[in-house]
């Protein structure tokens, strides 16, 4: 059983796509499909249940994926060590990030990293927080970027940045004219918040209530972009990380007002699967992230 076949299988599963798995290995989609069929014939079990749409791994397929991924990672580690090019183990760094990470900052970090490490590249996909955790824990990506990352089972956390939380409202809203606001002033305001099951939603609303804001959510969303659009439309006010308002502040479609007392921040962390070894390129990209992004955003639109 060749390493190439195991890698094709792992990439098909990682991308949950025969075409993308084939592309990652520079083979035709038909070749990737035939490779997995031969693996199934050799093992005498079905690895992928193709009768479902979308297809799913069988229990045997998941077991084989977990073991194959470790074998492929170990093989490339040994190969790189023998060749004396340890950094080649992670020549492609895959990152899963929550939607609300500042895209401009991320782009600048990737550009800076590319200049420092021209032989490596970074692939970033933006996902729901739970999907970020899932992909990191499954070994489908090298790194994840999450808000409020502490306490997530199986993940090691590298603190990245703290983003101040501010009141987001329409520029013509009465509170937008103030230099600062108190949490108590939100008590009678229609509030646009995060879905209750999201960690950020739980943390924000707990902080508000603990400091005198008996908020009344009128709308809830699972992403910051939807919340901003609702606030722009006049559905209510919200409490959001300041860097996520950069575009709207520049256009003047939203205002951001800091809190006078008991300010708090959204922590962002870089996460990876606990026990997973970090190689040279991955560590270098982490350093670029830690040193290469800023939080400067104008306060008012």
Summarize this structure briefly.
The chain is of the alpha/beta class and about 300 residues long. It has helices spanning about 5-15, 20-25, 30-45, 60-85, 105-115, 130-135, 200-210, 225-230, 245-250, 280-290, and strands at about 50, 55, 90-100, 120-125, 145, 155-170, 190-195, 215-220, 240, 255, 265-275. It is built from ten helices and eleven strands.
Q: Which structural category do the helix and sheet elements fall into? A: alpha/beta
- What would you give as the CATH superfamily of the domain at 162-265? Periplasmic binding protein-like II
What top-tier CATH class of the domain at 162-265 fits best? Alpha Beta
Which sequence of SSEs, written as H and E, runs from N to C?
HHHEEHEHEHEEEHEHEHEEH
How many strand segments?
11
Low-confidence stretches: 294-301
Any idea what the shape is?
elongated
């Amino acid at each position: 059983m060749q390493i190439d076949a195991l890698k094709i299988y792992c990439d098909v599963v990682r991308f949950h796509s025969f075409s993308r798995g084939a592309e990652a290995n520079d083979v035709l989609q038909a070749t990737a499909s035939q490779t997995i069929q031969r693996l199934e014939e050799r093992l005498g079990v079905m690895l992928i249940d193709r009768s479902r749409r979308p297809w799913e791994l069988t229990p045997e397929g998941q077991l084989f994926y977990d073991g194959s991924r470790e074998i492929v990672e170990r093989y490339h580690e040994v190969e790189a060590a023998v060749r004396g090019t340890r950094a080649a183990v992670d020549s492609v760094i895959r990152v899963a990030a929550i939607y609300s990470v500042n895209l401009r900052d991320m782009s600048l970090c990737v550009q800076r990293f590319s200049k420092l490490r021209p032989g490596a590249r970074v692939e970033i996909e933006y996902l729901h927080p739970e999907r970020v955790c899932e992909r990191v824990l499954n070994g489908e990506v090298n790194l994840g970027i999450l808000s409020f990352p502490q306490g997530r089972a199986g993940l090691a956390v590298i603190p990245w940045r703290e983003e101040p939380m501010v009141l987001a409202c329409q520029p013509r809203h009465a509170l937008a004219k103030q230099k600062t606001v108190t949490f108590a002033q939100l008590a009678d305001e229609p509030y646009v918040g995060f879905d209750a099951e999201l960690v950020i939603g739980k943390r924000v609303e707990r902080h508000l209530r603990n400091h005198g804001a008996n908020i009344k959510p009128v709308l809830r969303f699972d992403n910051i972009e939807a919340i901003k659009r609702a606030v722009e439309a006049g559905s209510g006010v919200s409490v959001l990380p300041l860097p996520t308002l950069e575009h709207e502040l520049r256009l003047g479609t939203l205002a951001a007002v800091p809190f006078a007392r008991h300010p708090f921040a959204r922590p962002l962390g870089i996460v990876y699967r606990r026990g997973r070894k970090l190689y040279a390129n991955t560590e270098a990209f982490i350093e670029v992230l830690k040193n290469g992004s800023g939080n400067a955003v104008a306060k008012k639109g």
